[in-house]
Amino acid sequence: MxxxxxxxxxxxxxxAICAPVVSVDGxxxxxxxxxxxxxxxxxxVGLAAPQIGELVRVIVVDAGRNPRxxxxxRLVLFNPRIVAHEGEQFFRxxxxxxxxxxxxxxxxxxxxxxxxxxxxxxVQIEAEGFEAVVFQHEIDHLDGVLFLDRVVNRKTxxxxxxxxNTDDNSSCSPDTPPRPPGIDGAP
Amino acid sequence: MSEFVLLTAVGRDRPGIVAAxxxxxxxxxxxxxxxxxxxxxxxxxxLLIAKRxxxxxxxxxxxxxxxxxxxxxxxxTVKELSPQESEPLPRVGRPYAIHxxxxxxxxIVHQISSLLAARGVNIxxxxxxxxxxxxTPVYVMLLEIDLPxxxxxxxxxxxxxxxxxSLGVDFSLQAVDEEAL
Lengths: 187, 181
Known about the structure:
Chain A is an alpha+beta fold. Chain A has helices at residues 26-40, 129-141, 154-159, and strands at residues 46-48, 58-61, 75-86, 89-95, 98-107, 110-116, 122-128.
């Protein structure tokens, strides 16, 4: 278990679609442990496995590591999926894998995430505000989606009317297929 | 000698402006770096920084762009940047967004920007629009500023409140949260 190097774009791992974790076994937990160690050694609030070169669906989120924000503590999740979301918020995001650039991103204000925890048990987590942003950012990484894919043009975004979308795919049923990336369809 | 030039081009909007400008730069061996290009009503404006190959002088590039201007009617300027000028400015404070909106009248931009200038607050981005959809023309101004540590948010807010009152407009001032995730 060790902190690893955080890969930087254009490393191809950052554009890969990651494979689901079939079972939360020793190998999956080893990836998670390295992810946690890497996060602890970084200034970040979340990491996704592809950022350390592991193409599996594992994330760690710990929004409260940022002194300006709060969160539910450190959450290590396997196969996380956003199954419901509400509202929207703008947030200026950057990414540890793409340093020195931030951009305004539109995200859902509230999300419900289904996943497996470190014991392999299904969990359901709800997050809002900054922590919801972190979840959306990290889960995007599992599909090779970077915040650059979601940059909004502030000018046109504020001046153009947009239809509001709703998402009724809100159950944690294991049969539910993974949602396509994007809280409002295509970025 | 710096390798960087700042180029502006403005003209009646139509398909092909970006392609025409970038074609000249590309053929000249220039690398297009930071750019901001936008449409204001029917006019398209290009503002960009390009890196020039060492063998190409600014004058030679300017004359190639002048040929493009003659051909297309675009108004083009080229300015050589010193090595210092081609570096991004360090941010001195925290980013804030100021949104001002209300019934359109003369002097909104001037009053708001003047009170910022008087405090040494740097404006980093401006977008304004006159909205006519509701019958009464409504002016919207979106500013981004770099609030230096020498200026208190509360003092700036008080000054904006006074200005907004005298202009009869509404405003908001908020810190822009910015985090690397």
